[in-house]
Specification:
The protein is an alpha/beta fold. It folds into two domains: 153 residues, Leucine Aminopeptidase, subunit E, domain 1, CATH 3.40.220; 154 residues, no CATH class. 52% of the residues lie in helices and 9% in strands. Strand 5, helix 4 and strand 6 form a beta-alpha-beta unit. Ligand AR6 binds next to strand 2 and helix 1.
């Protein structure tokens, strides 16, 4: 998955490069800087001494020494002064410059801490927002997997602040968790009859099951000529029901006039996984992957459910994950990075591979 938010100690990340939140001297300090120097050993400091410091918003690269990564990219974030002193631009520049350096060394995997969000005082929710925005902009034109490493979950309070309305939305529905399965059962009982299907075409939003259509297929030969003509649409319906997840995905990409790359990038899915799905008609994606594609294609809620069903999944109100997805789709917000921020804040699996 091209961008992942993970909880970890960055010195433990097995990636090509980790990024250090350094200061202008590049000669070490506290926080993540201290942890990186401690884990890398004294040779890191020796190399840093040769670099002549670093401007705020810029980055320099060294070897990783005893760390499990090949490189350390040292960047200097802005000190938070209330937001009116160009802090955001400088912070964006930290991510951009670091990623350019990583690219120049052919790194495929890079891990960032939340630059400036500790001693330098940048509010953590905004720091995460800048990180995700800057990284996703870079990934639009580059193939790389970027981890944003969050260290201290306890001190990390974005959920309450940034996502108050999502919390209310979850509370409203989560409490009600059993009513959904009841309504789902009722819906199944009322699933479109063959008659409705013939008149209106398939009603995928109502999630008909293949079995619901089976008696109709058997009954068709004895039907009147008029009914026989309509049975053709039943045939079409059956064909659509037969469509696999992979086929539906490719059809929707074409219908949307997107290129494959536009779709998998927007879905935060890497190219290799997409190729696998494309070449295997029967590929069964994970639920987050299936939803990621639904988001990238900007499917409505009922289309999303249809697509999920092809992969053997459903959305329900007994899962916070599902409710958050529903929240974003209902509001027409298909920004996968914003959705992932919210999922992360509520401790849920993230979308993508
Ligand atoms: N792994 C991942 N993240 C970490 C780790 C770790 N091991 N340790 C801390 N963090 P900070 P800054 C998080 O203060 O705000 C240094 O003294 C931490 O929770 O390390 O850019 C430098 O020399 C926070 O969210 O960096 C500079 O003088 C984030 O890393 C100054 O601090 C950044 O916190 C830079 O301040």
């Amino acid at each position: 998955m091209p961008i992942q938010i993970v909880r970890n100690d960055i010195t433990k990340m097995k990636v090509d490069a980790i990024v250090n939140a350094a200061n202008n001297s590049l000669l070490g300090g506290g926080g993540v800087d201290g942890a990186i120097h401690k884990a890398a050993g004294p040779k890191l400091l020796a190399e840093c001494r040769t670099l002549g410091g670093c401007e705020t918003g810029d980055a320099k690269i060294t070897r990783g020494y005893r760390l499990p990564c090949r490189y350390v990219i040292h960047t200097v974030g802005p000190v938070w002064q209330g937001g009116g002193s160009g802090e955001r631009e400088k912070l964006i520049s930290c991510y951009k410059r670091s990623l350019e350096l990583a690219k120049s060394k052919r790194c495929e995997t890079v891990a960032f801490p939340l630059i400036s969000s500790g001693v330098y005082g940048y509010p953590k929710d905004e720091a995460l927002n800048v990180a995700v925005g800057a990284v996703s902009e870079f990934l639009a034109d580059n193939d790389m997997t970027v981890y944003i490493v969050i260290f201290d979950r306890a001190a990390y309070q974005i959920g309450e602040k940034l996502f108050k309305d999502i919390k209310e939305y979850i509370d409203d529905r989560y409490a009600d968790e059993h009513s959904d399965s009841v309504s789902e059962r009722l819906r199944r009982m009322n699933a479109p009859s063959v008659h409705t299907l013939r008149e209106n075409g398939p009603v995928f939003g109502a999630a008909p099951m293949a079995a619901d259509y089976a008696p109709a297929a058997k009954a068709a030969p004895q039907a009147s000529p008029k009914a026989a003509a309509k049975a053709i649409s039943l045939d079409d319906a059956l064909k659509q029901l037969d469509e696999s997840f992979s086929e539906m995905l490719l059809r929707k990409i074409d219908e949307r006039g997107m290129t494959d790359a536009q779709c998998y990038k927007k879905a935060n899915i890497d190219r290799k996984l997409f190729s696998k799905i494309r070449s295997d008609r029967h590929y069964k994606p994970s639920k987050p992957t299936a939803i990621a594609f639904a988001i990238a294609l900007e499917l409505s809620l009922s289309e999303t459910k249809e697509m999920l069903e092809k992969a053997g999944f459903a959305l329900s109100h007994s899962s916070k994950f599902d409710i958050i997805i529903e929240y974003f789709i209902e509001r027409g917000n298909y920004n996968i990075f914003e959705i992932n921020e919210a999922l992360f804040a509520f401790d849920q699996a993230l979308l993508g591979a």
